[in-house]
């Protein structure tokens, strides 16, 4: 849980303080990896790095990451990673990459929904995008670490040690995804509260208008 503490910042504390001034997937990509096919792993990492480089400009390319440019094709890697088949068949490799895809999807959808609602001011949106950006970058670091663990040329270690590293990466990704689910849920609750309040104010305005 030490990893979560590094990037956990309560959403409500910030958003409600800003509020006083101003008055989650049906399309999740399913992966299927095995020893023969690792789904263009290196190419995916390169695309993700290029996409994350512009996240600070306002999430312009997250859509590309989660759609066509982020499609995982079942083709052979150029220079298939040569580690033990028992390691490459390990189910947590698939789950780690799947969780990364879910992080990208949920960040993109969560931010886009809140921005489109027009119920959050620029300060709040900047705060939310900053949390999402940090999660994306940290999860990308986990994928880079996974690639190192799977690369025979990079690290010399036995199967047991590789599996232990994969387990640790898996736990870290689970923590990030759990935090993101909680963060987006809080934001969604606040969004619904504001929408309800806005509708209530409109109704009251209509009533007062009729009375006049």
From TrEMBL:
Signal peptide extent: 1-23
Keywords noted in UniProt: Signal
Highest taxon, organism lineage: Bacteria
UniProt protein name: TerB family tellurite resistance protein
Provenance organism: Sphingobacterium mizutaii
Taxonomic lineage of the native organism: Bacteria, Pseudomonadati, Bacteroidota, Sphingobacteriia, Sphingobacteriales
